[in-house]
Write a structure and sequence with these properties.
331 residues; Alpha-Beta Plaits; 2 domains; 10 helices; 6 strands; 12% strand
Length: 331
Amino acid sequence: MQTAFDPNAGAPSLPVATESTIGAASAGPLPRPGGATTRAAERLSSRGTDESSDAASSETARGSWATAALVLTLVVGIAVADVFTSEELSLSIFYAIPVVIAAWRLGRLPSLIVTAIAAALCVAIDIQGHAPYSHPFYLYWANFARFAFLAIVAVVVSRLRAAHDALARLARHDPLTGLLNRRGFVERASVELARARRAQRSMSMVLIDVDDFKKLNDDRGHEAGDEVLRIIGRVMSNVRGADVAVRLGGDEFGLLIPDAGMDGAKAVVARISDAATEQFLRAGLRVTLSLGVSVFGSPPADVDALIREADSAMYHVKRGTKDSVQYRLVG
């Protein structure tokens, strides 16, 4: 695969965009993983990824602990209120509220634990309050019925949440490759653009197109074409956690690389190219890729501009020799 640099793609504003460094970066083959330059670029480009992933994990953990605290507070509050009400007025139905919250926000197992705690409190309150049951069997049967009711609520709500999440995933992911679809990508990329604007950081966008994909489908059948798309999907699923991979449609894929300048983009492109080539050969497929890469010194106005610059570079490759990569610096 050949590498090209487009000097007419707008005024370069990145620190690396001097005449000497552009010439050095544009000459020769793509950098291969393992070199000192590539390793340095990967370390620099992954630093922002680690920070973003850690922040997201920390926020998720805080949300889960806050939900757990709310649920336990509600359970204890209902139990205390139940103690001070008349024996003829049971508040056990209100335990369904924390159970529903736990099932929706925390999952089935935590909600069943909450259900068990609520049922145990009901038994303790009935025993302590000398509930008017003619035989102990009726006491335990009544509380078993409460537990069964709350357990059913927990299971039903957790299944509804699972179905909701599955539908949400289908709405934002491509079913063949598992990557984001255009809708999901626009949502994620918008978040990354806002973050890059706040931090005034660079970012890169890669567009990938399969060369002669229609001919491959005609010659080898659609199953071979689907396998090519699945291979690219697997390769792009193994990028950094903060990178945003997308199947834009047909045989066109994209990858947003936050916090990456020219060196970082070259390192990622080299990994994708090498991994895809290896898997194509392993599957007995003769496939080449055309790539367009836009490197933004400052974030573009919107996601459309992000895609448009990389798309222009990629189609420059498609109109030429194919099986190569075109880089563009955008101010």
